[in-house]
């Protein structure tokens, strides 16, 4: 049976449904159709976890193969049934299941693998229960019970294990600072704001998983800022719960700044100070493991049994059994109530402790990259907590205060108050670029598209993932290490590559890695080299930090042997030319965990930081620049749902679903901001009945959002379906189809005006921001021959001859068709859809021709040189840029999948 997140079935759309696919060539966008749901073996992304609260994943299905209301069963590797909760993530237009969502709990030991089949799910021994009351929601896992109020300051009133309160008063806290002090002098005012709940929604209610969504703002004395969305995840039989915290930065960043942002709980402590324990995990499984009042290392020995118990985190023997020289002087041993682990950079953390407020901090130790996990409690129970990507998202901090009292306080700081206040001010004064002409001149020299007032962070966002445990005692070192591993990388179940291919997932534009011939092996070596180079560059160049982690740089400076972090539009990539797509397709074909995690971090970053979620530009993303929000080009091609679909469907992540739903009506942004305002030659005023929208980067982003809302059957799915079909029909009806370049879009009808006069407009960027990929998905499922013909014409002629263009379009294409190698995948797609050997030959010859744009096709090897004179010694490859890496990667992956069997010898 479906869980609480089940959605409605599809309306019949017979005139637009694709005919059943008889071919097994899923790479052509037409997956083979089995008679029903097959068994799908599942495995852990990084091996069987030692610690598991729960795991959620999505599984794709070919069109027509699985009914939309199919129920599923799950079995462990030994054949035993495993409770599973399932729901539809996406439906095909005919109402059959496209993606199913599933979740399991950690109530039983994880299996090495599982098998998903059609059938009735096993029931969990202790199902999640959700009880909605007046003023609060109670969620029980069978081990812990959590009360969530529907208003007030607290996100969580209390977390109980049995009859004991393990934690209470869970709330968000932010520290607001008036401005930034540039020289460290002067006075700045700080104030603390707390979460204020506006709405609580139960999104899933079990039996295996419950999800509660909380929205609100931070408030104090009438000031409200930082709107937030928090989701709490509870799993059957679990002693932990997960929190996904997202906030929007609703400030321009000049007159106020974030000086601290965290999640805080109060932890009651009933055990005596010498039986209270603090754990802070460093790098690996090592941890600072101490008691609030230590009885080891004293001048007098309380006894070996006492010392061993305290070190191991167990209850010490009764004080009456201790050596009286210690027991009579316990009050003279300092109790250390405050602890903090501060990770202010990716390269170092410090641990300090003190007896209490008003007293000096005692250095404990230092390390490089902390695990982001801590614990406070004792034999009677305690509270463990962790922040994913702790050191990568610096400056972060774990705080434990007042552990020497009966009410300790735990704060997981997403932005450490020990760090300087968050500085989001624009990085230069404008350089006198007050007019469009001056700004275009600036673009000529630094590649930065500057415009006054556009370099604002107002409306950007960030998501953090936390986990909390209500434990019945102090964890052993082994358990604590397992908890830290679960914090670093939440255990993730995944589908095998073969099933993803057979289901035609994401347009079917990939096939398994194949090194069966020298030619194939060479391309695979190039793909591996490129990914490894970015992993190495990320670490050596320290592409980490709260706003930066997950992104990569755009271009390199061969003279300085650094990436151009400080040069206008050459700095952060911000999804330029689709590195997101390259990474996700690289994962889909390989199943590699390291690629998945890299792509996951990029999706978290680019969907939040590079896109506006509030203000006039909500729904638009920012072009690449020195700061993620600096460039004045705010465009659909960055915010496109195309880049988010992978993570959402592979993991069921609800936050990513929110981001895509935000875009369902993002065509409205074209009324606010004309993306080509600086280079228009004719006067133009945005008109809702005649919006100028390009058929490439603009429409592909809109189409991705509309398709996603339609297949997810969201609140606007019928509207989005009609807009998608209407624009497809009217693009196809243009005199020159996609080569017409753009059209006037009518927001009332959801259609383009069909132009009378043919035009030929080509842009090397039109097809490299997801147009290829979203069209592959559309042609999988929508039977619209005119649209297919228009797209295949574009695919054929881009790589064709002038004579062919003259004959079909009445004129020639632009001679400056850049990114030739990237566009060869269009010819490969046409070759498969049309069974055309000429197109296949053109695709391969263009891909392997060094004149096509990048020299990875010729007989030269990529190689590294070691550079010692940079700030840190680094590895350097001269001819790498992210534009070319992403587009070479996509071209290679898609050509191998589509026409790998036609590779010239």
From TrEMBL:
<dbReference type="Pfam" id="PF21346">
    <property type="entry name" value="PcRGLX_3rd"/>
</dbReference>
<feature type="domain" description="PcRGLX/YetA-like central beta-sandwich">
    <location>
        <begin position="128"/>
        <end position="484"/>
    </location>
</feature>
<protein>
    <submittedName>
        <fullName>Tat pathway signal sequence domain protein</fullName>
    </submittedName>
</protein>
<keyword id="KW-0732">Signal</keyword>
<dbReference type="InterPro" id="IPR048330">
    <property type="entry name" value="PcRGLX/YetA_2nd"/>
</dbReference>
<dbReference type="InterPro" id="IPR048331">
    <property type="entry name" value="PcRGLX/YetA_3rd"/>
</dbReference>
<dbReference type="InterPro" id="IPR045793">
    <property type="entry name" value="PcRGLX/YetA-like"/>
</dbReference>
<dbReference type="Pfam" id="PF19501">
    <property type="entry name" value="PcRGLX_1st"/>
</dbReference>
<dbReference type="InterPro" id="IPR048329">
    <property type="entry name" value="PcRGLX_1st"/>
</dbReference>
<feature type="signal peptide">
    <location>
        <begin position="1"/>
        <end position="24"/>
    </location>
</feature>
<feature type="domain" description="PcRGLX/YetA-like N-terminal RIFT barrel">
    <location>
        <begin position="39"/>
        <end position="118"/>
    </location>
</feature>
<dbReference type="Pfam" id="PF21345">
    <property type="entry name" value="PcRGLX_2nd"/>
</dbReference>
<feature type="domain" description="PcRGLX/YetA-like C-terminal alpha/alpha toroid">
    <location>
        <begin position="491"/>
        <end position="903"/>
    </location>
</feature>
